[in-house]
Write a structure and sequence with these properties.
Elements: H1 7-13, H2 19-24, H3 26-57, H4 68-113, H5 115-121, H6 124-166, H7 168-216, H8 218-223, H9 227-278, H10 285-303, H11 306-311, H12 313-328, E1 345-353, E2 360-369, E3 374-378, H13 385-393, E4 400-405, E5 408-409, E6 421-424, H14 435-439, H15 448-457, H16 461-465, H17 484-498, E7 502-506, H18 514-527, E8 532-537, E9 548-553, E10 556-561, H19 563-569, H20 571-580
Parallel strand pairs: 3-8, 3-9, 6-7, 7-8
Antiparallel strand pairs: 1-2, 1-4, 4-5, 9-10
């Protein structure tokens, strides 16, 4: 019942991430732990025989044969210790790498099976944290906690059995003292300092939040004449953090002192017991005292790190709980979707908020995108237009409402959405392979003639033809040998080869100079005339060529209509367009 208070023990009861790998590779783990135990035993044996040899040799033995056995044992243990250590590292690291590779694959599979759920609950940074930070913590759970703990328990059993055979009373004494070191003090550290560690994390997070807010608004503090209040508030938060850190360090100093006292008590006990037990056999008490004292120090290394490792389990427990929470979610089975043209997108009363953030990004969006329509989706950064694009692609699921492609919710398509909606984003990615292979991502079965055809359509055929290797020219990583406009045209060539009926342009001209931007827009408009086009942008260049303009502000539809109708009837649209063209607007935007 006492161990049920340890968070890690409670988390492991229903764990689906660590326990399965412990069971699957249990024999490799047993071998690694056994090698770890043997390594410490060899270290203790080396110091024991060396201590006896040095002490005995100092008494000038009458015959070299009196120290021959310690010489042989010293050499044997001296060779065995690094050999076993090396093999133990090979086995244990092989176990860790095998376990973590399987664990990462499992995490990728879980994320892939229901990407819509994870995108809706976690933002990109959270998902990356799951992929890196939490998996790293699970790896450390083995390296810093489980493996040292198993090795220490194995040594504990060997020491108790060895002393128990030689002297039951000494074995009982070691059972008690060692029990305090490997069980009592680590459990105490988890209960006391574990809670302080969690509070330290909370205080630091709160301090960062306050500091960020206050620095961003420092001008307001100064203008309000409350700069001293600002400094006092920050100092108070910092003092709370420092006070908690001081408590952590104070506890660690007390705990380490107690451990040193227990080690000293054990050493004194073993010295007295060894001198009494073996003092009259083969050598004097001094020889055995040196042997037992030196033998104890390698064993201390196996136990001294346990309290610190146990204290860190709270950090690992949080990661373990998050990963298990992912496994407990019901994953959807994506059914094959087969649609017939024409293709219409219907957005009905869509609301969306990230589960963890809680703030609603979109509120009550209603929109119909008809077959072949050209729609411009405008809005400032953070207005929600990119979130709406993710919802249209099916990467996110609306909190309420629905987005359907021909009466099928887009989040139900899974990877099949790529057959109906193609995307060109701000930075199209080109892989480090040939131009032909990059374009064939749109259609792996495409012939060279078809590739040349789409290159001609996007205006790159002449440029590629002039390259030394033509279509077989290698593209540098991320396509850095090409300009921004050329990368966008190559991405368009992919989509033309894929021939998807709906194209989503997610601010594709960001970062391009005005001339290149206009050229890219012209290419898009000319080559996508027969497609349904959704163009996400933050300014209005080329907007007159669209059928419908939708302006999103703070998650709501603020303006909607054709460019000509908005120019005639909407003063704000006129002012925005003037500002975009560099003309000073008549009224503030």
């Amino acid at each position: 019942m006492m161990f049920n208070k340890i968070p890690l023990i409670r988390a492991l009861k229903h764990d689906q991430w660590v326990k399965p790998f412990l069971k699957r590779y249990r024999w490799t783990l047993v071998i690694a732990i056994s090698l770890g135990i043997i390594t410490f035993i060899c270290g203790a044996g080396l110091m024991f025989s060396a201590g006896f040899l040095i002490s005995k040799s100092a008494t000038r033995p009458e015959n070299i044969l009196l120290v021959y056995v310690p010489i042989v044992l010293t050499r044997a243990f001296g060779i065995a210790r690094p050999a076993f250590r090396y093999v133990e590292r090979l086995v244990s690291h092989n176990w860790v790498l095998k376990m973590t590779s399987q664990l990462r694959q499992k995490l990728y599979d879980v994320l892939e099976h229901d990407a819509v759920f994870f995108n809706s609950k976690y933002q990109l940074g959270d998902i990356l944290g799951l992929l890196s930070d939490d998996v790293h913590h699970i790896q450390n759970l083995y390296l810093r906690t489980l493996f040292p703990m198993f090795v220490a328990w194995g040594l504990y059993a060997v020491i108790i059995i060895a002393f128990g055979v030689l002297s039951p009373l000494m074995g009982l004494w070691m059972l008690l003292v060692f029990g305090l070191i490997i069980l009592g003090i680590p459990f105490w550290s988890i209960l006391i300092n574990g809670a302080r560690q969690e509070r330290a994390k909370q205080l630091k997070d709160h301090l960062y939040v306050d500091l960020t807010d206050n620095v961003m608004g420092v001008t307001d503090w100064i203008l309000a004449g409350r700069n001293q209040e600002y400094l006092a508030k920050h100092a108070q938060s910092a003092q709370q953090n420092e006070a908690n850190a001081a408590q952590l360090h104070h506890f660690e100093h007390c705990r380490d002192f107690l451990l040193q006292v227990l080690y000293l008590l054990m050493i004194v006990s073993v010295i007295m017991w060894g001198a009494t037990k073996f003092g009259g056999q083969f050598a004097g008490p001094a020889n055995w005292i040196a042997a037992f004292v030196l033998a104890w120090f390698p064993l201390v290394d196996a136990f001294i790190q346990l309290p610190t490792a146990a204290q860190e389990t709270n950090v690992y427990t949080n990661s373990l709980n998050r990963l298990n929470d992912l496994s407990n979610k019901q994953t959807r089975k994506v059914q094959p979707v087969h649609l017939q043209a024409p293709y219409q997108i219907t957005i009905n009363d869509v609301h969306f908020a990230y589960a963890q953030a809680g703030l609603e990004v979109l509120s009550g969006i209603n929109l119909t995108i008809r077959p072949g329509e050209k729609l411009a989706l405008l809005g400032r950064s953070g207005s929600g237009k990119s979130t709406l694009a993710s919802l249209i692609r099916g990467d996110l699921k609306p909190t309420t409402g629905n987005i359907k492609l021909n009466q099928v919710p887009t989040f139900e398509f899974g990877d099949q959405i790529a057959d109906y909606i193609g995307v060109i984003n701000q930075s199209p990615y080109l892989f480090s392979t040939t131009i032909a292979n990059n374009i064939r991502l749109g259609n792996e079965a495409a012939s060279d003639e078809e590739i040349w055809s789409v290159l001609e359509r996007v205006g790159l055929a002449e440029m590629v033809h002039d390259l030394p290797d033509g279509l077989d020219t290698k593209v540098d990583e991320a396509g850095l040998r090409f300009s921004g406009g050329e990368r966008h045209r190559l991405a368009l060539a992919r989509l033309l080869l894929k021939d998807t009926p709906i194209i989503l342009l997610d601010e594709p001209t960001v970062g391009l100079d005005p001339i290149t931007e206009q050229a890219v827009i012209d290419t898009f408009m000319n080559q996508l005339q027969d497609k349904t086009l959704i163009w996400i942008t933050h300014h209005l260049q080329g907007i007159d060529r669209m059928d419908e303009v939708v302006f999103i502000e703070d998650g709501h539809l603020a303006m909607q209509g054709s460019p000509s109708a908005l120019w005639q009837n909407n003063q704000r649209f006129r002012e925005l367009k003037k500002a975009d063209q560099g003309i000073i607007p008549d009224q503030p935007l």
